[in-house]
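Batch manifest, entry 17 of 40.
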Amino acid sequence: MLSFLERYFEFKHLGTNWRTEILAGITTFLTMAYIVLVNPAILAAAGVPLPAVTAATCLSAAFGSILMGVVARYPIALAPGMGLNAYFTYTVCLKMHIPWQTALGAVFLSGIIFLALTAAGIRQMILRSIPHELYAAVASGIGLFIAFIGFRNAGLVVSDPATFVGLGNIRNPTTALALFGLALMVALEIKKVRGSILIGVVTTTAIAWALGLVHWTPTGGGIQALGSTFLKLDIRGALNKGLLEIIFVFFFVDLFDNLGTLVAVTKRAGLIAPDHSIPRLNRILFADATATVFGSMTGTSTVTSYVESTAGVAAGGRSGVTAIVTGLLFLIAVGAAPFVGVVPAAATAPALILVGSLMLATITEIRWHEPLVALPAFLTLILIPLTYSIANGLGFGIIAWAVLHIATGNWRKQDWLLYILAVLFALRFVYLGAS
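Output type: structure tokens
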């Protein structure tokens, strides 16, 4: 049985083994386990019952990650997306006064559109139309993005009313511990110790508990709580209210967040083919779309691929087993949700910073000496972390790429679909803002 699974997941071809894949799956889970606490807190503000949405968060993450691992065989984990959950709550439900059941109906419809476009091959066409330099910029931009999240979670970077951001208090015990964790992980990485990130997370967590730096309060959850949200989505209401704008935003942002994450993870893992194509792309997109549909049925907002998957890749994960292990841990978390908070931000922040730095390797693939390429790549690279959105950064990069190629008479060299994407992004920014 094990030999069959090793052949199915191509262990020999990928140069991996069970120990590495399991450690990588655990690493990915630890870096994204915060979603079990954060997503329910955000959606609860929209009126979704907290215990139910906690269970839905765990179940949808488990379903999506396991599906990705089994069907697509990639080390990409999924969970309800940050950003879209805030849009769901604060814009759709609280600002527009749309019931959460109707908002879930809109999420469901966006997932169905995803499935239809995947079946028709349109999502694959979109991915193939994006220039290679923008791929590299997206991967590096996401590296800056998750490193920035790590710095913020560590307390090293804080908000400042005068300069927007500033340096935090390094004497703060949490910040100091995070810096220790980063130094430990980097040292282990230099020594090429297997599981360096996981060792760093576990060690830092143990020290945080010993120093009394973990302030953990058990939360509700459990599969029995799911009854108040399971299949409570109002699809007819979403259609009757004419919520096309909302459905479009859910669809549009998830599409490009997903594509950006997909490019970043596969490039970091060395899984992109020599012609810059991604093997089994249709299976990856199918898993992502199906997870969104499943998530809306259980009671949570859009499910998408998580950039924290790069932490597992950095730990050596190369096959779908990594995603399956992460999914199984989320499944366990359905019953153990109250205990997920035992891993503090000081332990996971260093992992995000380290992985972010490793992802910047793709920046060398950009032809910086050619302004026609360099400016769109730079906009993509810098706006992903500054706007806190992969889709926004990629959108401005695509618009700049199209405008510059038209202005310089090089427009015939580009895929026609790229210009359509540029127009769609421009319309989105003008009429829908950055929602």
